[in-house]
Amino acid sequence: MIYGDPEYYKRFGFLPAENCGIKSSAGMYAAALQACELSHGALNEISGKFVEGDIYERDEREVAEFGKQFPEKVKCHTPTQDRFAEVLKMVHE
């Protein structure tokens, strides 16, 4: 399972998780939520919700404090960030 641009990840064998009846943790079908079978038929008769692990929950203050130990980074903006923001909005029940 991965969140990403379907147009990019389909070349690696990912397909919309919706095709497998898998919704986001919010109970929505999300275009960005992609699934890839690691063995043939592994996703047959699978459905439910994809729930991200607790590791993705973070305290922004802790993140900022951790980041202080590294050289300052230059932030940049790319068209792929805009595309991903669009794909993240593509959800339905």
Outline the structure in words:
This protein has 93 residues and is α+β, with helices and mostly antiparallel strands. 24% of the residues lie in helices and 16% in strands. The protein starts with a strand and ends with a strand.
Q: What's this, in brief?
A:
By secondary structure, the chain is of the alpha+beta class. The protein has helices spanning 6-9, 60-67, 79-88, and strands spanning 2-3, 15-16, 22-23, 29-30, 33-35, 48-49, 91-92. It has one domain.
SSE arrangement:
Layout: E1 2-3, H1 6-9, E2 15-16, E3 22-23, E4 29-30, E5 33-35, E6 48-49, H2 60-67, H3 79-88, E7 91-92
Parallel strand pairs: 3-6
Antiparallel strand pairs: 1-5, 2-5, 4-7
List SSEs in N-to-C order: EHEEEEEHHE
Which sheet architecture does the biggest sheet show?
3 strands, antiparallel
Overall pLDDT: 93
Q: Which segments are poorly predicted (pLDDT under 50) over 5 or more consecutive residues?
A: none
Number of strands: 7
Radius of gyration: 16 Å
Total number of domains: 1
Assess the beta-strand content as a share of residues: 15-25%
User: Given the helix and strand composition, which structural class is it?
Assistant: alpha+beta
Number of helices: 3
Measured between the Cα atoms of the first and last residue, the distance is 19 Å
What is the overall shape?
globular
Helical coverage, percent range: 10-25%
Strand order of the largest sheet: 1-5-2
